[in-house]
Each structure stands twice: as structure tokens, then as C-alpha cells.
Design brief:
- It is a single chain.
- This protein is α/β, with parallel strands linked by helices.
- The chain has 20 helices and 14 strands.
- The strands form four sheets. A five-stranded parallel beta sheet has the order 2-1-3-4-5, with helices on both faces. A five-stranded parallel beta sheet has the order 7-10-13-6-14.
- Helix 10 (248-260) packs across helix 12 (297-303), helix 18 crosses helix 19 and helix 19 packs across helix 20 (437-449).
- The radius of gyration is 30 Å and the shape is elongated.
- The N and C termini lie far apart (74 Å).
Amino acid sequence: MDSRPAPHVLVVDDDPGQRGLVASFLQSQGFRARCAASGAEALAAAAGDPPALVVSDVRMPGMTGLELLQALKQAQPALPVVLVTAYAEVRDAVGAMRHGAVDYLEKPIDLDELAALVRRALGPGAAAPAAAAEMPPLPGGVVVESAAMREVLRVTALAAPSGARLLITGETGTGKEVVAGLVHRWSARAAGPLVRVNCAAIPENLLESELFGHEKGAFTGAAARRVGRFEEAAGGTLFLDEIGEMSPALQAKLLRATQDGTFCRVGSNTELRVDVRILSATHRDLEREVAEGRFREDLYYRLNVMEIPVPPLRARPEDILPLALHFATVHGGGKARLSPGAARCLEAYAWPGNVRELRNAMERAALLARGGVLLAEHLPPRVREAGGAEPDAAAETDPGAGPAGQLAAIERDAILKCLREHEFNRSETARALGISRRTLTYRLREYRDLGLPVDPE
């Protein structure tokens, strides 16, 4: 067994969230990690305890990452340095490699790329593999079966304790809000509030007041002082959903709040400061929005220390049936069952509305099934059509049963027809059919479990 200590990596960044994220990830990979908040602090740390490698941000107040690189190389020419840079600074970073940087990483950081780069710089055997981190328990209602979503949760569990600002991306309805909730739940801020704001649901002229609050008389209708969402989230997490819908003017004010934690209520010049972690989500391609001038580049990099992409439901088909059963159980008030035809339709449909559309479809189906088996006929037409020809209720009752199944279907149709003719009076129905009331009750219980109408409306 190799008893050598793990290599020491010095992480330099003025942003505590990104600094903590990189350091905690490197520790999970078997490295020792120390942090410095500035170039000067990094030089002092490197002189006292020389690291095996330095990972430094480029843009920092005071001494920049490029200046730190030059100073480190003068003192320790063989020390490998990796620079972390935004897209606009890549040219500078490439130039810096001629002065001794071994490589660079673009923001937002890809953790797998970071691990590969560090191991390449230090050698594949530089650190012993760390034990796999145990996934925190999932709260009730979070259903995950697919490998794709398990990977999302692995990254979420790794990033949650760091305090870093995260950008959660994905199509509408994929479950970005669920991921934000897990980040908060698995972080050191779990005891604090989780405050959610949907930036697309609030008119632009009211969103600033919603976020930062306002003073009495700040505008027409401001009859009293109002505390904004930033203040409500103090000590906890603020989740800004659909951040791509925010206007450029408000983006500038949000940038200031993310940089130093300060803001002013609408109608006030008094600066307020809050300690809050910001999570953002969007269905838009923010890199394209930045390139086309609709989203501030500096805000993009402030919010996106790391990106967590949530795949659409069609890319994780293993989750469809477990989620469907969960939603059917919740909305049906008990244990739910899916007929083979219903399951076939659910798996064949593309779900353009993702998990949100699936939840709505199962709420509808549970209502129509009345606590019995969910049949294909209970699903929305567009979902039924995805499974091919609309399944016949009798075929679903006795799939593949042959003549015996056909006889049972004839018996069932006769019983239900007679029941309706006698206005659901069971005694009269049994008498008309020439069977005992007990036999009728037994048959009707079977039909109810299949989701068939056996009770008056």
C-alpha cells in the first residue's frame, strides 16, 4: 500500500463559492486542497507549504491570476499552474501558457475535466482514489431510476455543500426546481429558508420590488414598506427560476447583489447587505443569449460557477413508469396499478412537456380511474395515440385470455348494462340477472379494480 501523502493542491479564487466547490471536489478525488482568497495570500501559502499544483482564477482584484502565475514561476519554476478563465479571457490564458501555465479551464467549470487535467499534470497515480461519496437520502416524492438522473444527483450532492452559485438548465418541466430544492436540503443552509421566485411569472415593472423590496411611497400603490425576497432568504437560499427572462436593467442590479451581497430597496438609497446563496434556472441557452447581447456576460459567469443540466424525460425513459405510478398514487389516494396498454402508451410517448406533462396526465387518469387500474383509455388522446391503436377495454381486462377471456368480457358487459338499466340498484340487478347479490357484489368489486364505472355518478 502506498503510504505517501496525497498531493497538495492550492486553490486560488476570490469567489468563496467557486473556491469551496473546487476544493471540495479535489478532496473527493483523493487530493489535499488548501484555499487562498487572493494572489497575495496564495504566494504566502505557497512559500510556507509548497503545493504540488496551483489552480487559480484569472480575474481577481489586486493581483490577477496572470500576475500570480509569473510570481509563482519566479519562486518555483517547476510548479504546475492551471488557470480558470471565462470565455472572453481564453486568448490571455493561452498566451499565459507560454509563460508556464500547464493548461486552462473555461468557466463554468466541468468537474470531470478538472479531475482529468489535475491527474494529467500530476500523474495518474498521484492520488489514491477516494471512497465514493454516499448519496444523501432522497426526500419523499423524488423518484429516480435512470442512470442519467442519478448522475445529476451525484453532481448535485457534490456541489450542494460548497455554497457555490449554480445554474440549473434544461427544458421546461424537467424538474429543475426539484434539483434546486435538493441543493438547499443538502447544504449547510438547510435550516434557513428556501425562497423561490419565477422571474417569468412577475411583470417586469414589479420584479425589482419583488426581489429587493420597496419603501412606502416608492411608486403608485406602494402604501407600505415591503421586504423583498433577498431579505426573506437571508441565511438561506434564493432560487431564481427562468432567470433568462430578466430585463437588462434588472440584470445590472442583480449583478451588484451577487458581487458583494448589497442592494437598495426601491425608493431608498440605504444599502442593505444579506447573506444568501443564489441558485438560478433557465430553459434558455444563456451562452447564446450572451452572444446575442440579451444577457450580461459578467452576470452569466457570476451565476454559473457550475452548471447542472437536467435531461429531458425522453432521454431517461427508465424514469417514466416509476414517476407515473408515483403521481397516480398521489392523485388516486392509494396504491395505483397500470394496465399493460397504459404502460405501453406512456413509454411510447415523447413527453415534450417532460415530468410536468406526465404529472398532469396521471392526475387526469387517476381521476377517471376512480382508484382502480389505470387503462389506456384514461390517458390523454395524444398519449394513447403514441402507443398505436387505442387499446380495447375488454382486451386490457383479459389480455391474451382467448375464448375464456371473451366469455368473461361478454358476462361483464351484460352485468354492467343490466346495472345501468336498474339505475345501479344491486338487488334489482341481481334479481334480473338471476344471480345472488353476493355474486354480483364480488363481480362489481373486480370491475371497480379495473377502473370500470360500477357506481352512480
